[in-house]
């Protein structure tokens, strides 16, 4: 996966709430504020091994594919 960035919009597209997101980021030692500002690399989220991270990375990939296809 080449430099895919996962954004807050990707998380929200799946219906994930901010409260749960903040708690999840804290549990995994990830910077919630940075995520809100610029997103995080997909590989950082996938390194958690969490299925929710896998889902949001898949959403980000779909978004990126659609943007590249001009959809």
UniProtKB/TrEMBL annotation:
It comes from the Bacteria. This is Phage protein. The lineage of its organism: Bacteria, Pseudomonadati, Pseudomonadota, Gammaproteobacteria, Oceanospirillales.
């Amino acid at each position: 996966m080449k430099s895919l960035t996962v954004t807050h919009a990707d998380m929200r597209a799946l219906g994930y709430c901010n409260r749960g997101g903040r708690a999840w980021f804290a549990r995994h030692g990830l910077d919630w504020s940075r995520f809100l500002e610029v997103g995080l690399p997909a590989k950082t989220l996938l390194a958690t091994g969490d299925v929710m991270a896998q889902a949001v990375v898949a959403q980000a990939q779909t978004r990126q594919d659609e943007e590249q296809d001009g959809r």
